[in-house]
From TrEMBL, chains A, B, C, D:
Residues 16-254 form the DAHP synthetase I/KDSA domain. PANTHER family: PHOSPHO-2-DEHYDRO-3-DEOXYHEPTONATE ALDOLASE, PROTEIN AROA(G). GO terms for biological process: aromatic amino acid family biosynthetic process. SUPFAM superfamilies: Aldolase. Keywords: Transferase. The lineage of its organism: Bacteria, Bacillati, Bacillota, Clostridia, Peptostreptococcales. This is Phospho-2-dehydro-3-deoxyheptonate aldolase. It holds the Pfam family DAHP_synth_1. GO terms for molecular function: aldehyde-lyase activity; transferase activity.
């Protein structure tokens, strides 16, 4: 890989309020529904997760969907619900930003901004995110090499923002038994190459509810700095990703067995 | 695949000035340098290509580069050079747009707007392109399935713009002998699934100069509606993609042997 | 790639009876059913193909099937039917050998021995094939790199048998719209790297009947030395690969449109 | 997947001498050099590993090498050294069989017979292995889907041998930072689909010495029934796979940190 890099592997700790992410700090838990669907849904989820144990509340409001005819998220309305749920429980919140047009409002409300897998190669967007003073969660592109992922992070850092958390979420392979192939070796590799915290998303990384628990344990065992898990009050009725979302009870088991 | 689609396979002819693309119209040739590097370079290229035979002049001015430290293109200045070269030769021009911030100026100058491989999954961007009254060239994402590519086109069409040209440019595989694996079966498949014209980019599709000619012939033999080829006055000195760019002489051979 | 190689790219012509394969000799057509199913089936196929135009008759008798419970081929009985059909029409025959136990009988009856995709990495088998005095058709492994394929051919040649025909039959990719991703760039690459003749199997390479014709044309356009096509008297009733087999009429069109 | 299967997911415990593999039995450790290189090398390795803690001694004597000109293993001579080392230390031994010609001698000496990644699709070979009364370690093919791997095991079991241990050793992906992409989700999946014990080979699965320890921990955390690790007295001088082999000290750390 290139010699000239700001990210040389020296350890970087990302702070979100009082939360410290990376290095030897305990792994963080980010959980919540794929999509914010209603005020009730996100409120119930937030309170339940708070009780079980969670560090950051996630909820998608702008959804990158393969089909233009699939549910695209509640947008600004959803963001407000998510914000309220965060406020009511005292939890920091994270949501994905897809479009610079909504950058200001998302940056105002969210504690962490997520760059989704489909935007990891969107270099204009990465540059803009680099100019924000806000922690960024950068998901690995669905077919990004280690080098491309490192350099995507470097785009953000080179434009001024060192608060980057990396998220391994599975890569695309020839086998479709699982939704993606979770590449756990990327955890120690990316920590060494960049020094940034690396968390794992076993929900997208497998796409299968039953695999979330064993893959969460494996992720922590190889040194992941946190987990990002989809949890829904009623997975079979979820508007998106129900098959990979945990119930509260299942999430509690993951939390307990860490 | 989904039932509800505007793109049902019924043939769509895209017009660019007097040029008709798709169906039984003769295949078009798009050629030019990966990057516009100077006024002289693009002028010389335009006149040479015009003489050899070309339908549209290409030239990158905003370059999506894996590293933040690589040459990022001349930007607006390059767009002006490209525009001048088009005007001087009477050739329509195409360039890639990466960032909505430059949409108006690119839409004003360019005859076709290119959406690069890295933005095929950028749904916000696709929606915006769908609202333009301008032909769009939509490259296949580097790991996009046929279904995802069809639905990316559907995003543009569903928002009002039916003038979409598809471009197969190779997909990512396990073998790195070539830069990408050119998937020519995608030509008849995408024509049947969408009805849109499908052209092939053998330069990115192989990354190897010597393979551009045989792959161009193969692309036309299986029904491609055109070719997009990188040509540079002096490939070894090109600021990007020199190893896959043809000299004028090599391009002339491709043109003659069609 | 390694320096030490017998296959340096110098052109090798493989002879099968009066048939010359490779270099500037006209492309050869190998056709027949995936599996020999009965004496009647292979006889009818042989006579029909002979009339339409074919150089070598193919028919599988030992079938490498993913499931142990799928039809495994007629074995020696099938080989005898194939032999009779070849004799009756004067056509040379090719069949796949999977097991050295049947090597002598296959070598006695067949004019070309096929090494299937699943055995390309079976180095013990390649060495044994290298000691035979019989043309070998070496299919590309389903995930073999160019380098691994070159070296598999080198295994055969290094053990004494230079009569090797290579066959591109598609590689495994992330997209399952087609059965495999036909990598036509491998045709000029392998010709240059090895000097051996390279033919293309568009039937396995796509797995879709409608794509056999356009991909056959593309293969010949980029210089393939021949085609290997599955043809069956009644594809919907075929015991294997019916969906990718052509009828006689469809094969006739491929033959005419070359 | 197919309905008709002997492997229905009901738990199978494989016994090797007093060693029980699978179910809730403690994970086993298989370790040793990629290749048996000399009597001294394998003896030293066996005694050191015995002291540190190991259940089965591995050593390759027939090596499937990509190039016909690379070191192909010591053959029968190596097998005798391995046998002696096993006897001297009281450790059961495992080695790869590539060629049925050596089946009897390998079956006589080895306690477990390994089927390498390149032979997972070699169905004739699998059938023969199914007729042996000897535990088989079946590595996953380098591009085998879950279904194909399940059915490869089914081939062995259907021919009479239920003593099959599965080994995940990484699959081929588009990224070559690591030698293979270790697919740990396959561990719980294959346990559930087949009921067979599943072990993990982090040495081939990553190809990088530093990753063996974190990936070993991850493998055990998600339920692997054992590990297979390459250890060499002097990795930089190994005749094969030195870059992924551990020293005795490094192996000791893996053993201790489990």
């Amino acid at each position: 890989m290139m010699d000239k890099r700001i990210l040389t592997g020296e350890q970087i700790i990302v702070e979100v309020g009082n939360l410290k992410i990376g290095g030897n700090h305990p792994p963080i838990y980010i959980a919540g529904p794929c999509s914010v669907e209603s005020k009730e849904q996100i409120m119930e989820t937030a309170f339940q997760l708070k009780e079980i144990g969670v560090d950051v509340l996630r909820g998608g409001v702008f959804k990158p969907r393969t089909s233009p005819y699939a549910f695209q998220g509640l947008g600004i309305e959803g963001l407000e619900y998510l914000k309220e749920a965060g406020k009511a429980t005292g939890l920091p919140i994270i949501t994905e930003l897809m479009d610079e047009k909504y950058m200001d409002v998302v940056a105002e409300h969210a504690d962490i901004i997520q760059i989704g897998s489909r935007n990891m190669f969107n270099y204009s967007f990465l540059k803009t995110m680099g100019r924000l003073d806000k922690p960024i969660l950068l998901k690995r592109g669905m077919c990004a090499t280690i080098e491309e992922w490192v350099l995507a992070a470097e785009y953000i850092v080179a434009h001024g923002n060192k608060n980057v958390i990396l998220c391994e979420r599975g890569i695309r392979s020839y086998d479709h038994y699982t939704r993606n192939t979770l590449d756990l070796a990327a955890v120690p590799i990316m920590q060494k190459e960049t020094g940034l915290p690396v968390i794992v998303d076993p929900s997208h990384g497998t796409g299968i509810r039953e695999l979330v628990k064993p893959m969460s344990k494996a992720a922590l065992a190889c040194g992941a700095n946190g987990l990002m898990i989809e949890v829904h009050p009623n997975p079979p009725c979820a508007l998106s990703d129900g098959h990979q979302s945990l119930t509260f009870e299942e999430y509690e088991q993951v939390r307990r067995d860490k």
